[in-house]
Specification:
The complex is a heterodimer of chains A (123) and B (731). Chain A has 123 residues and is α/β, with parallel strands linked by helices. Chain A is built from 5 helices and 5 strands. Chain A has helices at residues 12-24, 35-45, 62-71, 91-98, 110-120; strands at residues 4-8, 28-32, 50-54, 80-85, 102-106. Chain A has a 5-stranded parallel β-sheet, with helices on both faces. In chain A, helix 3 packs parallel to helix 4. The longest helix of chain A is centred in the N-terminal third of the chain and has 13 residues, at 12-24. Chain A starts with a strand and ends with a helix. Chain B is α+β, with helices and mostly antiparallel strands and 731 residues long. In chain B, the strands form 5 sheets. Chain B has a 6-stranded mixed β-sheet with strand order 14-18-19-17-16-15. In chain B, strands 6-8-9-11-10 form a 5-stranded mixed β-sheet, covered by helices on one side. In chain B, strands 20-12-13-22-21 form a 5-stranded mixed β-sheet. In chain B, a hairpin with a 3-residue loop joins strand 15 (619-622) and strand 16 (626-631). Chain B is extended. The chains are: A alpha/beta (123), B alpha+beta (731).
């Protein structure tokens, strides 16, 4: 069975690029536009193998999303990667406190994304 | 940039355009509500998105510039700086500049570097920051020298207790390390594990001691712990080196202190030597400014060759031109495609419908394979179902091209702001109906005509504040843009509450230009359209305000090219309303099929007023004006279709045939046909593209029986009717 990934980003371009990379790597992908959307989709999906989220989003930002996801029992130990821009690296700490597993600095290329995912996702 | 991501560039440009619109709109609104933090957050997010995505494609100029804007926006958003008119202005200008930068990467246009640099500096100083040093290059390249040397490391790792709660799995770390070489010994330290009763299953009480034999360097090993090392107790120690015997000890207790590595032991991060200039600056021999200046004196190869007289300046110029052309060519190639973003719900619905269509089709082919005549009712029912499916799919597919008109409206707040500042008038812009949907092509084409009209209203329609006050009007003039659906078309109105058109001035001007006779009695409805005549409004202003006269004839021509009409309503002293009526889509029209002889024609339904059977004595022939028919007291020109298109008709006697009364742009004409066949939607196929332009024909279509039917161009027919008759005499 293929692995499932929840991709959260308000930028459709970013979302498409991440989704494209993950789909090519054999993931089944669910996309969400912002934190709230993601919480709903996570709850509806029941369980995901990995979550990749942007931080700066309308409705609900990435940090809050991570906190909310950690409250769901099915997402308590799910790897969650956050995408940050360099300027937002200070968010790393906030992300860690919220329960982010790891982070990836934008811009990145498909290989780095997959490598980072491989780091946190049991094969 | 990754080539795999290059395919998303088009999506990025589209998204960036939307974000730019949001930023611009937001900044304009901000001038009124400078304390609206939510608005600021929204603007910030859009800038941030552009920055993030542009970085993914390596559009560094865009990324860096947006970063500067973002820095300032961040300060505003956090309330560390207040929004002032100069800041809003700077941000608006920066938005324009950003637009140009994006356009430049998209289609290879040039950007004024000076403007970019000036704005960059202004943004930096507004953010109260010195321009930061050149960003350090991140590199994860593994040093090539160390790759061949196997070293043995002793790794001691105590992860933080909350490791699991962040979704981290220590096993992953061990696996990754193992992938680097030979994990020869793994010792698990369980001494910290409490009694079973006290154990928290969500916490990690374990520590590890590992020995790893690997060709990777220490930095690579550290990278395995990237997400945890700041919170772990971690030491990585080289226990022996097989080649050099150098013992490097970079053990550290983590949290904030990261011990810098002795640089002499470490290769340059990029794997190559530093530029000479950098070394000189670092060793303090020269200052960065001196270096900068020296570098600026560096000459380009072309200049050197010219100095050495190896090439002439002319040859150089030619070579440079060739280079520029090649550059431009390579840029234009990639922007040929256009794309459209579609709501996934629309596509899902479409897929459902296609599913239904497939079912209907299989039902039909099943029926066809063993058809008996008694099943005819079933067949008819299935065919009706097929028709429903097809129509619905057609509507949905057209719907995909439909976009809200708001995208075309969004440029106006800025335009009106600029116009009001320039003209010294106070203007308020009210937009409504932004959600009204219409065809993408139409939206793209109405931008310019609308801009003309809005500009016209601001320049000529609205009076200066003093004049308005004198006339008991509010000092602030209002321009309203509204869009709404009406029947099968969309109406867009541009309304101002200014002084209205001046009847006397238009008449005087028209007489001067010889458009109307000196003593002609004209109704208002005949006078206003005169301003759409070529050269009418450009040469001299109808209203005597300074400003740019815009070619209203161009507006009219553009709208008509889209199959639409423009009409004017004006009340002196109260204001003017221009109404644009446009078809929802350019590809399909609702048509009435008519027959003349053996030929079938399609008449656009929108232009049909009525159909009549003329009574004897209502048709008169007037010398020089052709045939006229009296319809309830009004004489209309009559056109015999068979004469225009040279056909063999069934009837040459109008009393036996049918007359369609058609209207376009307020003028009417009666067209004689043999029979009305029915009403249907037709897909327009261009005549120009497939054949050539034919007077009186707007296009062609394929009819139900597979034959070609021509679509009448009502305006063209009117022109044909007018031939040989003075324009002003048509009544």
């Amino acid at each position: 069975m293929s692995k499932t990934a929840l991709i959260v980003d308000d930028s459709p371009t970013m979302r498409q690029m991440v989704a494209f990379t993950l789909t090519n790597a054999g993931f089944t992908v669910v996309e969400a536009e912002h934190g709230k959307d993601a919480v709903n989709k996570a709850a509806a999906a029941g369980k995901m193998d990995i979550v990749v989220t942007d931080l700066n989003m309308p409705e609900m930002d990435g940090i809050t999303l991570i906190k909310e996801l950690r409250k769901l029992s099915a997402f308590k130990f799910t790897p969650i990667l956050m995408l940050t821009t360099e300027s937002a690296l200070e968010k790393k700490q906030a992300g860690k406190e919220a329960g982010a597993t790891g982070w990836l600095v934008k811009p990145f290329n498909p290989e780095t994304l997959l490598k980072t995912i491989a780091k946190v996702l049991p094969a | 940039m990754s080539d795999e991501f290059a395919q998303f560039q088009e999506a990025f440009f589209e998204e960036a355009a939307e974000h730019l619109a949001i930023v611009e709109e937001g900044l304009l609104a901000l001038e009124q509500y400078p304390k609206d933090l939510e608005l600021l957050a929204k603007i910030f997010r859009s800038a941030h998105s552009i920055k993030g995505a542009s970085g993914m494609f390596g559009f560094n100029a865009v990324t860096q510039f947006t970063h500067k804007m973002e820095t300032l926006l961040d300060l505003l958003r956090n309330g560390e700086k207040a929004v002032s008119p100069p800041i809003a202005d700077l941000l608006l200008k920066s938005t324009d500049c950003l637009k140009a930068l994006i356009e430049a990467v998209k289609s290879g246009g040039a950007v004024d570097d000076e403007v970019v640099q000036r704005l960059t500096a202004e943004l930096a100083s507004a953010s109260g920051a010195q321009p930061p040093a050149v960003p350090q290059k991140q590199s994860v390249a593994v040093s090539p020298q160390s790759a061949s040397q196997e070293r043995s490391y002793l790794i001691k790792w105590t992860p933080p207790e909350w490791l699991f709660q962040r979704g981290l799995d220590p096993l992953q770390v061990l696996k990754e390390l193992n992938g680097f070489g030979d994990l020869s010994s793994v010792t698990l330290d369980m001494s910290r594990v409490p009694d079973l009763a006290e154990i928290d299953p969500e916490k990690c009480y374990l520590s590890w001691e590992l020995q790893l034999l690997t060709g990777k360097d220490q930095k690579t090993i550290e990278s395995v712990f990237e997400f945890v090392h700041e919170d772990s107790t971690l030491s990585i120690e080289e226990i022996r080196s097989q080649e050099s015997g150098v013992r490097s000890n970079a053990a550290y207790d983590s949290i904030p202190s990261i011990t810098p590595h002795p640089s002499s032991l470490r290769p340059q991060e990029d794997g190559g030597p530093k530029p000479l200039g950098t070394i000189l600056v670092e060793s303090g021999v020269v200052s960065p400014a001196v270096l900068e200046q020296a570098l600026s004196q560096q000459k380009r190869v072309g200049e050197i060759l010219v100095e050495q007289k190896a090439v002439t300046p002319r040859q150089l110029e030619q070579a440079l031109n060739t280079q520029r052309q090649q550059e431009a060519a390579s840029h234009t190639k990639k922007t040929d495609t256009t794309s459209i973003r579609v709501d996934t719900a629309k596509i899902d619905k479409l897929i459902n419908l296609v599913g239904e269509l497939v079912i209907t089709q299989s039902m039909l082919s099943d029926l066809g394979s063993r058809f008996e005549i008694k099943q005819l009712p079933v067949l008819l029912e299935r065919v009706a179902q097929l028709e429903r499916n097809t129509r619905e799919i057609q509507e949905r597919v057209m719907g995909i091209r439909m976009l809200p008109i708001g995208t075309a409206f969004s440029r106006f707040p800025r335009l009106v702001r600029d116009l009001s500042t320039k003209a010294g008038k106070k203007i308020q812009l009210v937009l409504s109906g932004e959600e009204t949907e219409l065809d993408k092509t139409v939206i793209e084409s109405i931008g310019d005509p609308l801009t003309h009209l809005v500009r016209n209203s601001a320049d000529h329609g609205l009076e200066p504040p003093e004049e308005r006050l004198d006339n008991n009007k509010s000092e602030v003039g209002t321009i309203r843009l509204n869009a709404f659906h009406e029947g099968g078309s969309i109406c867009i109105t541009v309304e101002d509450d200014g002084r209205g058109l001046s009847r006397d001035k238009i008449i005087a001007k028209a007489i001067k230009q010889g458009l109307i006779g000196e003593n002609e009695k004209l109704s208002d409805d005949q006078i206003w359209p005169l301003i759409f005549r070529p050269g009418f409004s450009t040469a001299e202003k109808v209203t005597d305000v300074s400003g740019r006269g815009v070619g209203m004839d161009v507006v009219k021509r553009n709208i008509e090219a889209l199959g639409g009409t423009v009409s004017i309503k004006t009340v002196t002293g109260k204001g003017t309303t221009f109404t644009l009526k446009l078809p929802l889509t350019l590809a399909i029209i609702e048509g009435m099929t008519v027959r003349v002889g053996k030929e079938t024609y399609i008449v656009p339904l929108l232009s049909i007023l009525e159909s009549i059977q003329p009574k004897a004595g209502t048709i008169k022939t007037v010398v020089g004006k052709g045939e006229l028919i009296n319809v309830r007291g009004t004489y209309l020109p009559m056109i015999r279709m068979y004469e225009v298109f040279i056909l063999e008709p069934e009837y040459t006697n109008p009393m036996k045939s049918i007359l369609l009364i058609l209207e376009t742009e307020g003028e009417r004409v009666a067209v004689m046909v043999d029979e009305i066949l029915g009403q249907q939607q037709v897909v327009i196929k261009s005549m120009e593209q497939n054949f050539r332009k034919v007077e009186g024909i707007a296009g062609a279509t394929i009819l139900g029986d597979g034959t070609v039917g021509f679509i009448l161009d009502v305006r063209g027919l009117l022109e044909i009717a007018r031939q040989g008759t003075p324009v002003s005499a048509v009544a």
